[in-house]
Amino acid sequence: MIAFPSSLSARPAAAGRLSCLCPVRPLIVAACCLACAPSSWAAGAAGAAVPPAAAIQYTVRAGDSATSISHALKLSGTQWQEVAQYNQLDPHKPLTVGSTVRIPLSVLKFRAETSRLIQTTGGVKVNGQASRSGVYLNENSRIATDAGSSAVVELPDGSRVKVLPHSVADISQSRYYQAPQGSVTGKVADWFAGSLKLVQGALETAAHKLVQRAKPLEVETTTSIIGVRGTEFRVASADQTVHKDRAEVLEGVVNNANTWKHTDITLHQGQGAVVDPNVAEMQAVTLLPAPKVPAPGQVLRLPEARWSFQSQSGAVAYRIVAAMDPKFESIAYSEKMSTPLADFSALPPGKWYIHARGVDQYGLEGMDATTMVVLKNPDWILQNAAIQATDGKPTLGWSGLSYGNGRPIPGTATVQVEVSPVADFSRQVVRAESAPDARTLVLPEVHANASYYLRVHVRNEALAKAADNVYRFTMPLDIGNKAYSVLLDKMPEPPEPMEAAAAAH
Within this chain, do residues 470 and 359 fall inside the same structural domain, yes or no? Predict the structure, then answer.
């Protein structure tokens, strides 16, 4: 039998209490777990205070003893004395069935587990090297995202962390501790401990709710540590000069600790706080509600794809996020604006999911409004396009290029055309190309009294991503040397699959 220090006194827990995890790292106690924390800390043999430490709680069962628990945990005599002192156990009394024994993580065996990079968008680096989804991440791995890039990390417990554009984050801890389910049976259970460090930028974290945790999932910044068990929240690190970090809770409860002033605050759903290293007191602030945004399916034309929404009372700025998926795991755009207006001109055509939220006077970002927009290629036309006889040859002529709104398109342009008797251009296609900045183009193999389709492609920097225009025309009966003018009928642009999806959203 391993002896306990004689100076320790008994402190049994209430009978029938269930086993639970209890985070006791200084100032990192999640509100949902406060019931597991002792009201005071025991004094050791020399009278020194026993410092709080991350620990799990083991419920004493019938047949348990100090020896059996120690053997189950493979503890040395010194380690068990640490456990005994930590729990104020009386060496002269047996363990009480139903009482709890707090076992510090420092004496438990553990194994490190890899996390996984499950989604990358744009430029993402792991430990300084370009990376992609599927890569496994060890403890102390660093993930960095470029502007317009993002990454999603899945921790071993199923929690997901989004590393937002222009951010840097470290996986500080990712491991499982082994603790007995019952010392008599010898069965053990795995308890997860994970933590991240936000070096720069912002994270969005969704902590898995159904996990045995050795301590709360933690996110550390320059000024704070946020501890949670199962919740969804955002964390942003201030620049290196200001050092004011922020946390915003979207779901559940978190504990936000000011590591500079050794104070903490509990934040509930819809609340946020700013951590100032020079101010001890922290204030829980109600986040701004979601702003009003246009209904899903709004179509915007590149290159001037500007999207706006209604201004919001209490907002001094706005955050607008664009992702390629409805779960917002492929984020390619995240910008803070002084007005409720976003410029999506740098994004490619397609369906984009949008988060918009107001930013209050404290810099806290509010609840998200979600919608979807469809970005389409520029709408452009050949101005005053017609087919006329030039030296007896059918010639396409135009006065210039313009966007659909009538604004001229700048730059040098070369016009390429395809002519076919069928709308899908599947047969008898002939091609021709104009000189740069020319305004006429002879059409080959165009016959009298026949109908054709004309597909026009423009080589122009401003229209690099533009879709081709398709026209329909019918040549007159006599196209000899007689003067004629054939107007072109612009065919409607075929609907894109994304629009149908937008309408059904």
Answer: no
